[in-house]
Amino acid sequence: MIAGAPLLFALGASRELGERVASRLGLPLAAHEERGFEDGEHKARPLVGVRGRDVYVLDSLYGDSDQSPGP
User: Fold this and answer.
1) How large is the C-alpha radius of gyration of the chain?
2) Would you say 2 and 14 are in contact if contact means Cβ atoms under 8 Å apart?
3) CB-side exposure of 65: number of CA atoms within 13 Å?
4) So where are the chain's domains?
């Protein structure tokens, strides 16, 4: 990581887009972990310090019938 540079995270299905954006910006994607829960909740946790940094998170708003809220 470049000290003081913005951090870019790409969650789930947005990884490919995140890699293209990161490449264009000349930045690596920041390390994180993700976990899905049985009730549909999702957790993402950065594995790098984010304090005092500009942070950008790419994540798709699209979801199939299992991931989208019901009617």
Assistant:
1) 14
2) no
3) 0
4) 7-58
49-65 residue pLDDT tens: 999 999 999 998 776 66
Q: CA of 36: how far to CAs of 20, 45, 67, in Å?
A: 25, 12, 11
| pLDDT greater than 60 at residue 70 | no
Q: In the structure encoding, which two tokens stand for residue 52, read together?
A: 């005092």
Per-residue burial over 15-45, b if 16 or more Cβ lie within 10 Å, else e, is eeebeebbeeeebebbebeeeeeeeeeeeee
Tokens in use for 41?
């909740």
